[in-house]
Amino acid sequence: MTGKLQLWRCIRQQVAVNRTSLFHMERFLHDGPDNVEELLDRHLVKKEKSLDDDEEELLNRRKLTSTRREALSLYRDILRASRFFMWPDSRGVLWRDVLRDNARKEFEEAKFETDPEIVIKLIVGGREAVQSALDKLANKQREQIDKERGGGG
C-alpha cells in the first residue's frame, strides 16, 4: 500500500510541476477529449438539416454510445480513486465503501437518461468532482508530510 501511495505522490508532484502534462496524461488514460469545450462540442446535438425519424434515432444512439463509454470510464476512475480513502467515517464504515456506494447509486439513477446534454453535464460534473477530491487528498497528504518532516527535524 505504501508503494502505491508513494507512486501516487510522485505522479501528483510531476503533474503539479507541469500542468500541461496533466492534459496529455488524461488524454492518454481515457483517450477522450482534451477539455470540457471539446467534450461538449463533440456530444451536443447540433441542428444541421432535417432528418427523418429513423436517421435521427440512429444519430442519437451513436451519441449515447459515445457518452456511455465516457460514463463507464468515469465510473472506473471513481473506483480507482476511492482506493485512496482508507479511513473510517463516524459510523466506522470506510470512506472507500461510502464513495463507491454513492457512485453506484448516482449512476443507477441516471441510467435511463436519454438527453445527451444532460448526460454530458453529469459526466463533466463527475469528472470535476473526482479531480477535486483527488487534489484535496493530495494537498492534505502533502501538508501531513511537511508537518511530519518539520516536527521530526
Automatic annotation (TrEMBL):
<protein>
    <submittedName>
        <fullName>Uncharacterized protein LOC107473878</fullName>
    </submittedName>
</protein>
<dbReference type="InterPro" id="IPR045298">
    <property type="entry name" value="Complex1_LYR_LYRM7"/>
</dbReference>
<dbReference type="GO" id="GO:0034551">
    <property type="term" value="P:mitochondrial respiratory chain complex III assembly"/>
</dbReference>
<dbReference type="InterPro" id="IPR008011">
    <property type="entry name" value="Complex1_LYR_dom"/>
</dbReference>
<dbReference type="Pfam" id="PF05347">
    <property type="entry name" value="Complex1_LYR"/>
</dbReference>
<dbReference type="GO" id="GO:0005739">
    <property type="term" value="C:mitochondrion"/>
</dbReference>
